[in-house]
Design a protein that fits this description.
This protein has 185 residues and is mainly alpha-helical. It has 9 helices and no strands. Helix 8 packs antiparallel against helix 9. The mean pLDDT is 81.
């Protein structure tokens, strides 16, 4: 019986080694058959990573240039080169500069910033800063602030009337409802 068990053991060992060798040969054939596809995929991945790295480097360089221009403009508001860089590369940042340094007696900078393609909220703030009637966004905010002030003064009915000015589809509506419910507390 021992000889038969040894023979079965040897057969199993040979069988497992055959399977290992067979799988190695199959994988080698698969790689040889698809070698060009693997190389092409590797090249595409390398090109994509290089493009992503270059894109990030260009964005960082542009951001650094814009930040440098903004700092220069803050320190020297009459620097036309820094002003042009900000207007061309980041008009919204230029609008923030105009808001920060606004001279209400001279609205030329404000008018210039309003005419740029900037964030709509910044445009609203500039229009409001200029003294014109603001559109929806800031008027809703003003109604919310006024209603809150009335709640703090204990004028609940007047505050509800102020909160009613805020449209139902406004993102500020939920805040107004909460203030109304908790009566500003």
């Amino acid at each position: 019986m021992a000889v038969k068990e040894n023979i079965d053991y040897i057969k199993n060992e040979i069988s497992s080694q055959e399977q290992l060798l067979e799988s190695a040969i199959k994988s080698e054939r698969f790689f040889k058959r698809n070698k060009k596809s693997f190389i092409a995929a590797g090249i595409v991945i390398i090109i994509a990573l290089a493009g992503y790295s270059i894109s990030n480097a260009l964005q960082e360089a542009s951001k650094a240039e814009v930040n440098k221009a903004y700092n220069t403009l803050i320190n020297h508001p009459d620097d036309s080169n820094a002003k042009q860089i900000l207007i061309s590369k980041n008009p919204s940042l230029y609008a923030l500069f105009v808001i920060k340094t606004a001279d209400l007696n001279s609205t030329t900078l404000i008018d210039e910033a309003i005419n740029l393609e900037i964030d709509p909220l910044l445009k609203e703030i500039l229009v409001n800063l200029k003294g014109q009637e603001s559109a929806k966004i800031l008027s809703n905010y003003n109604a919310l602030v006024d209603g809150y002030e009335l709640l703090k003064d204990g004028k609940t009915d007047a505050a509800k009337a102020e909160f009613a000015k805020i449209p139902l589809n406004s993102p500020l509506q939920q805040i107004a409802k909460n203030l109304e419910h908790y009566q500003g507390k």
